[in-house]
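User: Could you write out the 3D structure of this protein bound to PRP? I've included everything you need below.
Assistant: Certainly. Input first, then the structure.
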Amino acid sequence: MPELGRDSKPLTIALSKGRILDQTLPLLAAAGLNPAEDVQKTRKLMVSGNADGQEIRFLIIRAADVCTYVEQGAADLGIAGRDSLLEYRPRVYEPLNLNIGRCRLCVCGPEALVNAGPPERGSRIRVATKYDHLATEYFLSQGVQAEIIHLYGSMELAPLVGMAERIVDLVETGGTLKANGLIEETTLFDISSRLIANPASFATRRQQIQPMIERLRQAVEKKAEYQA
Ligand code: PRP
């Protein structure tokens, strides 16, 4: 494994809570980055750890906030979904596709409505989503006026209660859509998690960050070989 550069200040890595953490932790372990305690159980939001005996820190935060912590320099590195990067456009570097958290960002709707065809140009529809910008841009490109209804989760409920005609949300297995009588209309983007870096940290702490990226790159490649 690439040897890590030394620095007195611990390198800080922001991780997303939620289901993506299950896939993140084995990748970190394979790259030799080890939290000192079980980040899935602890209520602590900042957990210390080590890499080759060198102290590092993990921040355990909501997926959408990882971009903010890294952009602000509160974390040097972070693991963020491509969905958040596309929606929030943070000023960060994106040195590595980690190939975990794979899913797609889709326009979906009730089966009968979707089968009747896409909304007509010039029409108005209500769209429930947490991806306000991406949804607005997409429907604008289709000549459709979208009234965005911002939700923080469980978007699939909105069409069931007559609050929206479409949703824009992540689809992984399709199980949530199916259970709620919805189907996909269009895929907007393929999504996976990316390693992101604060540009100033990347420049000033390169000796520490570059070997970290290389270790993660090797772990991603090894996983891909194993799965092939
Ligand atoms: C995500 C997403 C969908 C669901 C899709 O939600 O927003 O609701 O997973 O997964 P599936 O295709 O495998 O069913 P998540 O469970 O992360 O919670 P959230 O609704 O709070 O965002």
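Residues 103-191 form a domain with the D-Maltodextrin-Binding Protein; domain 2 fold (CATH 3.40.190.10).
User: Perfect, thank you.
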